[in-house]
Amino acid sequence: MTDDPAPQVLIVMGVSGSGKSTIGEQLAERLGWAYRDADDFHPPSNVEKMSAGQPLTDDDRWPWLRAIAAEIDRIADSGDHAVFGCSALKRAYRDILVHGRDDVRIVYLDGSRALIAERVAARKNHFMPPGLLDSQFATLEKPGPDERPFVVSIDASVGQIVDAIVEQLPRPFPQQSLI
Ligand SMILES: Nc1ncnc2c1ncn2[C@@H]1O[C@H](COP(=O)(O)OP(=O)(O)OP(=O)(O)O)[C@@H](O)[C@H]1O
Ligand SMILES: O=C(O)[C@H](O)[C@@H](O)[C@H](O)[C@H](O)CO
């Protein structure tokens, strides 16, 4: 379909603890793509703030999102592929990242607060305090149909979730034909 080209970049989005890094890394491996984590684009001040239990504001996030958008454009425009794990909680944030490109697509990791709280409580060695989960859900604007997201439930094994994403990707999907 001409209006549904194979994506160059997939943005795996969701609240803290929804599984962006875990699923994003496995999805990238499955596709033979690079994985990039949006957390690596935060200035130290943002990480310090979250580590201290304070949610980020829009003003904390705009420059961070613009830096990620520039990297997405660089990768997609050079014909490369990547999976980005990025919370991208609000529509306005995703508009910066996608800005109308039809080769940059959103994957939404959909899960209940209870399930995510359980996983975050069990997680070790991560700067994001579990106490910020409420603000993450308060900020979350689930992607609407017009954003054409690939939506997956995270109440499944990692392998099942990756399968459920790959099944939704537009076909023919070049990387899959290599398998
Ligand atoms: N499908 C799954 N089944 C069981 N555990 C999972 C699953 N997906 C992720 N986890 C676990 O849940 C925790 C949160 O996952 P992960 O760190 O990937 O989330 P994240 O969205 O990248 O979080 P953050 O945005 O805070 O960095 C991790 O301990 C991870 O191992
Ligand atoms: O927009 C945000 O509030 C941030 O991106 C957070 O989501 C964290 O960076 C991430 O969840 C921790 O890894």
TrEMBL record:
GO biological process, one term: D-gluconate metabolic process
Superkingdom, taxonomy of origin: Bacteria
Pathway: Carbohydrate acid metabolism
Swiss-Prot/TrEMBL keywords: ATP-binding, Gluconate utilization, Kinase, Nucleotide-binding, Transferase
Entry-linked Pfam families: AAA_33 (PF13671)
Catalytic activity, as annotated: D-gluconate + ATP = 6-phospho-D-gluconate + ADP + H(+)
Family matches, as Gene3D superfamilies: P-loop containing nucleotide triphosphate hydrolases
Coiled-coil region list: none
Enzyme Commission code(s) on record: 2.7.1.12
A GO CC term attached to the entry: cytoplasm
Molecular function in Gene Ontology: ATP binding; gluconokinase activity
Entries under NCBIfam families matching the protein: therm_gnt_kin
Family classification: Belongs to the gluconokinase GntK/GntV family.
Name recorded for this polypeptide: Gluconokinase
